[in-house]
């Protein structure tokens, strides 16, 4: 299959954080201190991760976000620019610190994450309105739920006005989500997010399909559930399409879902069909799980092409 996404133009509207990640012997229980870990300080945030993922795979990318007027904010903006991402839409606020995530990872790659949103809460609709030229430029517009919900709603509506395809990663699921589902062409929830949005417990492929079709009944065009080691399930108007995961040695699952969303956006923006786009995204996400960190773990396009060329999962 083709892995060329260089014709894709992806606009990401979303969050940017600095991550403090500790690889620990195990995840702590409530009230427990676990020692013996190692620290990795890395750039993250769902929006920034998705932007970097799409860019490293070959897409043209622009990013609209808000960081604090502090050292981490300046470093994040510079790093994104160094990736070749358009950062004219990354604003700076003095009213809050740059978003910060605290992450603990166990030897199986599972994690616990707590986020202080900080400057991400200051990405308001007025700021995004000032970037209308980016929406006119984009073929794909990607959003998440780590910034104000009214900003996400406005961005999805503006994308539709310009004829762009919309992708929403509904994470983290929050109370008060507006009725935005008819503005979403592709939704990329994991099992837990699907269950919270639909009330359907996702335990196997059949229940995943039921949850995906329930999301479609809300108004979503296509729901693509990411199922970890079980791969992904695309629920479309024509039925459900299962794509197996690649078997890899898992080190850290941080940013795997973001990689999937960024890679999916890059592939769809290049005109790839849904099955090819999901296979591409699955391969990229699998590679992310083989190394530590958020953006430090995101693969390059050549790596994904090599994994896909090696054959079926």
Describe the structure.
- The chain is globular.
- The chain has a nine-stranded mixed β-sheet, with helices on both faces.
- Helix 6 packs across helix 7 (205-218).
- The protein has helices at residues 46-56, 71-82, 125-129, 132-137, 149-161, 191-198, 205-218, 256-269, 274-288, 301-309, and strands at residues 9-13, 17-23, 38-44, 60-68, 86-93, 99-105, 111-116, 140-143, 165-168, 186-187, 222-226, 232-236, 239-243.
- The protein has a single domain (9-28, 36-309), classed as Ribokinase (UDP-N-acetylmuramoyl-L-alanine:D-glutamate ligase).
- The protein is built from ten helices and 13 strands.
- It starts with 8 loop residues before the first strand and ends with a helix.
- With 313 residues, it is an alpha/beta fold.
Q: Cα distance, first to last residue?
A: 14 Å
Strand content: 15-25%
Number of helices: 10
- In N-to-C order, the SSE pattern is EEEHEHEEEHHEHEEHHEEEHHH
Number of strands: 13
In the CATH classification, which architecture applies?
A: 3-Layer(aba) Sandwich
What is the total domain count?
1
Mean pLDDT equals 94
Q: Name the CATH class.
A: Alpha Beta
Can you tell me the overall shape? globular
Secondary structure category:
alpha/beta
Order of strands across the main sheet: 5-4-1-8-9-10-11-12-13
CA radius of gyration is 18 Å
